[in-house]
Structures are given as structure tokens and as C-alpha cells.
Design a protein that fits this description.
The protein is an alpha+beta fold and about 140 residues long. It is built from two helices and eight strands; from the N terminus they run βββββαβββα.
Length: about 140
């Protein structure tokens, strides 16, 4: 994905759009391949959800070119987003890069692939408990016979 001397480094800013009628954004976690934020190797400049359906993430790496070269594999996770399901349906996830630079501060062209997400609602807890109790009742009946 990125060549030996085109490591993501200086800055990466991206915007994610989704359908807020189907998904509820609950948070994000940035990956460690631009540096560890807790060790001041990178700075989280994200705004999070700026309007319903729009998330703005940004990270500034403070690592040197050689540190980024040894840290970054050819492919890696930049961020993990977490959503709750509000409704059944399909929501597009439109991802756009608003700014990016390599470890030298030069503009970096990235290929972005947007996609769709179809949340699957989990069965209600009471239904699961009901099935479990029903199964126990059937087993007891069989043993009693």
C-alpha cells in the first residue's frame, strides 16, 4: 500500500459520513501506526462527531521518518469506529481524506474505499432467557419419563 519511503507520517485527516437514522456513533480509537498518543508520539486532533452523520478524525505523528518506517507495516488500521444500531437497514460509510502527508511532510495520495454496513439487531434478552428456560423444562420432562 505504501512504499518504503512513503510512510504516512505528518498528518492524516479524514471525514466519515453515515446515516444517523440507522447508526448511532459512540466513539473511536486511533491505531498505533502513526505513534502512541499516550507516549506523545502522536497527537489526536479529531473533532469526533461534528454533526449527526459526520465524523471528523485527524492525527498528527511526531515520530521521525526512520521510526515510522520501522513501525508501519504495508497495511494497517488507522482507526476503529464504534456504532450502536438504531434501526434495521443499510447505511453507507463514505470516507474522504481531507488532508494527508508522508513522513517528510509531502502530500500523500491515498486510495480510499467507502462501503456499506447493515446492522443486525440482536435478539431481546427476554426472548433468549425464555428459550433457555423452555429448553430446561423440556429436558426435565424427558428425564421424568
Amino acid at each position: 500500500m505504501f512504499g518504503r519511503y512513503n510512510k504516512i507520517g505528518l498528518v492524516l485527516m479524514w471525514k466519515i459520513r453515515y446515516n444517523p437514522a440507522i447508526l448511532d456513533f459512540t466513539g473511536y480509537t486511533l491505531g498505533l501506526y502513526l505513534g502512541d498518543i499516550s507516549l506523545w508520539e502522536a497527537v489526536d486532533l479529531s473533532w469526533g462527531e461534528t454533526t449527526p452523520g459526520t465524523i471528523n478524525l485527524a492525527e498528527l505523528s511526531l515520530l521521525s521518518v526512520s521510526e515510522l518506517d520501522s513501525l508501519q507495516p504495508d497495511s494497517f488500521t488507522l482507526a476503529t469506529l464504534t456504532f450502536n444500531t438504531l434501526a434495521v437497514g443499510t447505511s453507507s460509510l463514505d470516507i474522504s481524506i481531507t488532508a494527508s502527508g508522508d513522513a517528510y511532510g509531502n502530500p500523500l495520495s491515498l486510495d480510499v474505499q467507502s462501503g456499506n454496513i447493515s446492522p443486525v439487531p440482536e435478539p431481546a434478552t427476554f426472548i433468549l432467557i425464555g428459550f433457555g428456560l423452555g429448553g430446561i423444562g423440556i429436558l426435565r420432562k424427558k428425564r421424568a419419563i
